[in-house]
Amino acid sequence: MSKQVFDFPFRIRIRPAAMLAAAMALAGCASMAPSYTPPPLPVPAQYPEADPAGANAVDIGWRAYFADPRLQQTIELALANNRDIRIAALRVEEARAAYGLQRADQFPTIGLGASGNRSRVPGDLSITGQPMTSAQYQAGLSVSAWELDFWGRVRSLKDSALQNLLASDEARRAVGVALVAQVANGFLVLRELDERVSLARATVDSRAESLRIFTRRFEVGSISKLDLTQVETLLSQALALSAHLEQSRAAQAHALTQLVGASLDLTPDQRRFDDASVLLPLHAGLPSSLLTQRPDLVAAEHQLRAAQANIGAARAAFFPRISLTASYGTASAQLSGLFDSGSGAWSFSPQLALPIFDAGRLRANMDLAEVRRDVAVANYEKSVQGAFREVADALSNRRWLALQVEIGKTTLAAQTERARLAKLRYDNGAAPYLEVLDAQRDLLTVEQQLVQTRRALLSSQVSLYAALGGGKPDAATFTN
Fold first, then answer.
1. 344-354: per-residue pLDDT in tens?
2. What DSSP designation does 105 have?
3. Which superfamily does 1-30+109-148+330-354 belong to?
4. Per-residue pLDDT, 249
């Protein structure tokens, strides 16, 4: 008798634990998701433009690439304050929480509970005809409606959530890369306008002095009214250009401040922008390397993997769904006897649900998952093609804009000499002032165009840097 008293509770403790362990071992052992095979590259194996030797863009952090201190400070402020970056970071946290919820469905939810009940039945309602007082006390652990994932449905949903999390993290990096490029280009445009404004102001000062001299000459009768009017025209043109450039600079400063999301010190910089601080030689490599370098392409691939996993979940929905509800604890009519020997209690309630007729709901869900997978494939291929074009365009721009800069420098030197000679001819009475007017007008145009072309060349380098993946991944770079 003594052996039965102590052996029965022992068996009660072991049996539910063994059942639960066996169920967990069997659950989640299969997956019906199709195996993932990367789509073939829908682009040529080589870029159409020549790719000179240089450093790989992915190995150069943006702080090393953008060496100008003011530009570095501007980018740092943007990464810390830009609202798009903040939203992208919150999207990652949202996806992480969704993954945590989906992952938790793989495991049973175990709860600890205790309850007590005491009731009295009057005599006229009692079987014995006597008033009865009864009590019941329970304490134990419970598992409620845990799905045994024999077909991998829950596992596929968890894998899909994980891929969405990874995609959102890469999308956050892509937003950071795009922001760095936008800020750098905005800063370069602002510096271009600073230099053009400086040139225009110098021209205004020079022509104002010429007008003062010519006005004095006209007053003494040494020049005609036509010559004086032509000098006034030159000054008016320079003043109009200066006012237009000042307006453009103010608008660009406002746009850059909004992009950064914080107040900036955007006082005009009188220094000529150093091209070498941005124009580091970059090696584009092969189009296949973009698949691992560009965060937007990595994100698109994770989204494709997520779509594949959803197909596995849709397939598993055609098979029986088995869930388990169980409890194990102790029960007694007396609170003092709740933990006495022999008070163990347990229940084990497996359930099986097999879809028989659902009016085509499961088939439609399967078709939907497959179509979404096909859409993800098309989006991935489109992203690869877009990335290929961006790199090819940046390489082409770098080549031809560099040639245009050299041509512009030669043209500026020739135009400067032409303006000097025209002025000399006029002073010696060998040419009318109209010749000087044309030469100086053309000189101002060439000066402005050369500054614009130099900035466009710098912007092409920024675009190439971003198109190749935006530099070495740095967790601290694109978080706030």
1. 888 888 888 88
2. T
3. Outer membrane efflux proteins (OEP) (2.20.200.10)
4. 94
